[in-house]
Design brief:
- Helix content is 33%, strand content 15%.
- The strands form 2 sheets. The chain has a 5-stranded mixed β-sheet.
- It has 233 residues and is an alpha+beta fold.
- The longest helix has 14 residues, at 184-197.
Length: 233
């Protein structure tokens, strides 16, 4: 089947974005990531009009849904390019855009460093030996599966780049530290910053729950982190 790939491109962070279309003959089992690789592998990449084009810039690490680097907007929704297949998309026109909540670096690459900076603001690290119980193994494992891809932040109506609200990535990752930290004073610091950078800004729209490409139980982790940082203060 012949597909038209419409890509929102940008040469650098200061440049104006523009749209460019490409055509590819592909089977439905092909992933968006594999399709981008095929386009870039062409000896001479030309767009739909026959104009020579620069290789498409995008990020990938594992290609097996483990790193989150290939997150982008695919037909309007934030998804991982490696786990989104042509046959799962409607129509023969595929629209690819960078995530809109982060600064564009080039083409489909965005700067997601704010994700890690926000976690640092909440002091999400251990100051003591981790306390672990078998009872919490499974939910701590689910917390550790977060890819830091930013898909949940892309759909969150409360998250904006540069603002205090850290989004769903905060409670998902805070649970492990709040559950394992034995240093009482540090636990209290985390709880205080968690309330400021997450709890007080969350509108509970739960847009993040179903968009997570890793299938993490986001709502359950929110409830558990809130219990540890807010309800027990």
């Amino acid at each position: 089947m012949r597909y038209t790939i419409r890509i929102k491109r940008q040469e650098n962070k200061e440049a104006r974005p523009f749209w460019q279309e490409f055509e590819i003959e592909a089977e439905g089992e092909l992933s968006i990531a594999a399709m981008l690789n095929e386009l870039n592998a062409r000896q001479k990449l030309t767009d739909k009009s026959g104009k020579e084009a620069e290789p498409i810039s995008w990020e990938c690490g594992c290609m097996v849904k483990k790193c989150g680097a290939c997150a982008m907007r695919i037909n309007g929704l934030p998804e991982l390019a490696c786990s989104t297949f042509l046959q799962s998309l409607k129509g023969k026109v595929i629209v690819l855009e960078p995530l809109s909540k982060f600064p564009v670096v080039k083409d489909l690459i965005v700067d997601r460093s704010v994700v890690f900076e926000n976690l640092k603001k909440i002091n999400l690290w251990l100051e003591s030996d981790a306390y672990m119980t078998e009872y919490t193994h499974e939910i701590r494992y689910q917390s550790a599966r977060c890819l830091m891809c930013g898909c949940c932040l892309e759909v969150c109506p409360n998250f904006d780049f540069g603002k205090d609200f850290a989004g769903a990535i905060a409670p998902v990752n805070a649970y492990r530290i709040l559950n394992e930290e034995q240093d009482t004073s540090h636990h209290e610091q985390i709880a205080e910053k968690y309330r400021k950078h997450y709890f007080e800004g969350c509108g509970k729209s739960l847009s993040c729950q179903n968009i997570c490409p890793a299938g993490i139980p986001v709502e359950e982790l929110m409830v558990r982190s809130n219990a540890a940082a807010v309800w027990k203060k």
